């Protein structure tokens, strides 16, 4: 039997896998490429999770496979994939490794951030920069912390402050910052190089799950940005559009696919274990020989699979809806349409979190006591899903959906809705 190479044991061989391969030319080809990457990540996901090291090789794998630039312009080496395909890539990667799925999903949203709030000139410049250089995005934009303080010195914006959470951290080439101009209520986004003295990551993310997401704290010290880099500002005045507020529904749609991917990975891993190892209960009668003959096991997998398939169908439809909005002319988006999309994304989120957590828990009943061994590692799916699904309270998503259904009221745009 040929030994499976892993990213831990043989990173050079795996990172060079696509060195002489042609790039995919259609949606199916890119999804197939994502499946190749997922197979590599799945081989040692548990080992890398336990090591809890900065995912340098993992991000390089995404880069070498071409997945980092799929939203970027074809003219600069991108693929210009639509968001509904990009979210499927996030889902595929999350099946294998929820942490890396989160990193990639956040990267896509931050790469799109310049389209959400930037001027046409800024969009062109940033998309050329990150696509042609194969750069990876992170973000230090945690709304629950105090905003970064921005002062103006010699015609430049100077960012200072602390964020208790970020994403991408030390493995990001570019970092998105957000702060408030001192003495005003003006929020300003900017994209800056990560590797500079004024951005100091603590490397202190050591949580239950999503352990490789570089989500720890960061200090921002005198990071300078020219006014030309203030996203969406013309002559120091912001040019608002409803489209600017799609950052939250866009990111939450990414969440849906992270969660769905983790749940799909959990069910597939459990089923593989059951087929190989789960034993029939010897006192149940009918002289069953294997766990796959147990009625309660068959019933359990049937229930979980039907919920997961329903969630996937719902999320697929939602992704088509938000993809259409994200790729439409920015000036056309109305507050009503934005709100309808946000409600749909919230509905998908509440379903996949509840069903996904049920799956990640229930699989232990269906695989048996021996499947709780640390070497099996089925706990990684529950840990990852439970950790990230605490990002914002699910009851508020239910409230948004209920208010829309009962009184036809759309959510007011906030940092979380």
Please provide a written account of the structure.
The protein is of the alpha+beta class. It has three domains: 126 residues, Orthogonal Bundle (Butyryl-Coa Dehydrogenase, subunit A, domain 1); 100 residues, Butyryl-CoA Dehydrogenase, subunit A, domain 2 (Beta Barrel); 166 residues, Up-down Bundle (Butyryl-CoA Dehydrogenase, subunit A, domain 3). Strands 1, 2, 3, 4, 5, 6 and 7 form a seven-stranded mixed beta sheet that branches. Helix 8 runs antiparallel to helix 11. The termini are far apart. InterPro entries: Acyl-CoA_DH_C, Acyl-CoA_Oxase/DH_mid-dom_sf, AcylCo_DH-like_C, AcylCoA_DH/ox_N, AcylCoA_DH/ox_N_sf, AcylCoA_DH/oxidase_NM_dom_sf. Pfam families: Acyl-CoA_dh_2, Acyl-CoA_dh_N. This is Monooxygenase.
Going by helix content, strand content and strand pairing, the class is alpha+beta
Strand content: 5-15%
> Roughly how many Å apart are the termini?
51 Å
How many helical stretches? Answer: 12
CATH H-level name of the largest domain... which superfamily?
Butyryl-CoA Dehydrogenase, subunit A, domain 3
Helix content: 40-55%
Query: If classified by CATH, what would the architecture of the largest domain be?
Result: Up-down Bundle
Radius of gyration: 22 Å
What average pLDDT do the residues reach? Answer: 96
Q: How many separate domains make up the residues? A: 3
Q: Low-confidence spans: pLDDT under 50, at least 5 residues?
A: none
Report the sheet with the most strands, covering strand number, pairing sense and barrel closure.
7 strands, mixed
Order of helices and strands: HHHHHHHEEEEEEEEEHHHHH
Count of strand segments? 9
Shape, principal axes of CA atoms: globular
Q: Please name the CATH topology of the largest domain.
A: Butyryl-CoA Dehydrogenase, subunit A, domain 3
What top-tier CATH class of the largest domain fits best? Mainly Alpha
GO molecular function: 3-methylbutanoyl-CoA dehydrogenase activity; flavin adenine dinucleotide binding; monooxygenase activity
Keywords: Flavoprotein, Monooxygenase, Oxidoreductase
Pfam family, one: Acyl-CoA_dh_N
Protein name: Monooxygenase
